[in-house]
Amino acid sequence: MDAQYLNTDLELESDSDLTGLVAALENLGLTSLYCGPNDNGNWHATLEADLGSDEPIPSIVKLLLAIDSLDEAHRQMLSNCLRKEFDVGYECTAEPFESGDVIDNEILRRIVDLGATIRFTIYRSDKPEI
What we know:
The chain contains four helices and five strands; from the N terminus they run βαββααβαβ. It is α+β, with helices and mostly antiparallel strands. The protein is globular and about 45 Å long.
């Protein structure tokens, strides 16, 4: 089994309450998976685009479009976040795998302009191959 794309989460961390920012992003079509305090006292939020796509680009673009649509107050809340991360998740077996997803320069530039990072998370599948 090659690596299979699962989803892309937008992970945020702040020393301020993220409830208002998360509500604004939900109103723009994103799904909140979590919003609340961390063990370290900071606020943490996880959002996703929930598109069911088999590649990361549509989800990343939807996340970026929602961010671009924020009003100035919510954009400032996002700007003040200590961590802004696009976490691209894949599932694969323990065997070597290949994946051919590409994130083009324009999308990378938009992520960098936000001061965000990209993380690739590989989840091991324990499902037997058929």
